[in-house]
């Protein structure tokens, strides 16, 4: 009557579907996490995500210990598809429990682990935990997956009930958490250090430490400003969004907890109350629904990982060769000469986070101003983002490329200067990441190349010395993009 719960993208000890189910069905439940070398070996040696995970594991281990004396987390470092079957055998487990992860690589890994365990007669149980509605739970009247967000969202809101948002309690069943087997390192030493697994510090911001406890702190803070979210979310210099994406990615907070609170505040828990009071909560819930939306897109159309959701967009010929490579490097390093784009790229490079408005602006700039394949930008974000999530990142990039499910039309091309004037009017965000432009007044900061050299000199700036001249002219690029995208209309 022993079960093993395998933690992956769900690093918390509360409101946890697999752990709850295991504890209610088995008398001895072990908890394990594998630092999977099949994933870790491909990462650079300094990666903030690894730091985040180790920190979250320490909190999870301590939380399990606080729930039941002697309990804790078994941490293995190796290939998950070998480690999990070996651990299950060593513990004498008759069942393996885990929460589902619908990324293609994860599905392959889980299938391999499942096969190995089924062959030995173990029972495998997987659960929905990472999203509110998964896979085919929200379909059109014709039982087809939705391809457009707004009808999906309406169907989501119609389908949701307190049942889908209620939490899976752990504490009252915690007596079934098994004491760790002999030979497990003592508390405080169970989670290896970065050095132990061959990594170096990458500089995780203090705001993102503390695992699930840190997530609860951030959420409590956000609750005070949720009502203003609709008005503040688009301005990167303002503390508007929740900054919870990394916690959602690694499951250090439960999506049900977040959606429950937003639904209660925005929709009164049952009916759709109109009026300004719940506007912020409704807008925020809508973002959480986008997350579910992109997860179901990935589930139904896994080909989006490699190709355009709309096949005709794979006819586009992207800029290639040394000039394109140089442009790509300039974009990655924040040297395009467009201050908002460059400040945003400094934000992602220095912190591992980028504001949503800026993800749209920088993605659009790479694709529609530089003519570079969205997949190159997607891969760069995937390396840099702490909150990197295949479904949301691919969805965001295909949205910007106009090739995705419910993407913006291809002829809608963000103007990086007007986006800057509109969403960072005083240049406050720009100055935070490009201190060399700190003295420029708002009228010069969005497009410094339009200023007279003497005006710039008065602010201590010389283009080409302190800050680059623009690598592309937006108006020219716009025309080139319209030509480039013309192939999506032709039939050949
Ligand atoms: P909030 O504004 O507080 O939103 C709350 C939560 O809703 C987020 O944490 C996130 O889980 C979800 N969410 C918000 N917007 C979206 C969206 N458009 N699509 C899916 N989920 C959303 N989000 C990721 O989590 N991982 C990514 O790798 C990622 N890559 C992106 C790439 C591009 C090109 C674009 C345009 C967007 C991307 N997003 C991604 C979506 C969005 O930018 C981030 O979720 C958001 O900026 C995270 O900040 P926050 O937690 O403060 O968001």
Can you describe what's shown?
The radius of gyration is 24 Å and the shape is globular. The chain is α/β, with parallel strands linked by helices and 492 residues long. Helix 11 (255-267) crosses helix 12. The chain has 3 domains: 2-130, Rossmann fold (3-Layer(aba) Sandwich); 131-167 and 213-300, Serine Threonine Protein Phosphatase 5, Tetratricopeptide repeat (Alpha Horseshoe); 311-488, Orthogonal Bundle (DNA Cyclobutane Dipyrimidine Photolyase, subunit A, domain 3). It has helices at 17-25, 37-40, 48-67, 80-91, 104-119, 149-159, 162-165, 211-223, 229-232, 245-250, 255-267, 279-300, 322-333, 339-351, 356-369, 374-384, 390-400, 416-423, 428-433, 442-445, 453-458, 474-485; strands at residues 2-7, 28-36, 73-78, 95-99, 123-127. It has a 5-stranded parallel sheet, sandwiched between helices. The chain has 22 helices and 5 strands. Bound molecules: flavin-adenine dinucleotide.
Question: How would you concisely characterize the structure shown here?
Answer:
With 492 residues, this protein is of the alpha/beta class. The protein is built from 22 helices and 5 strands.
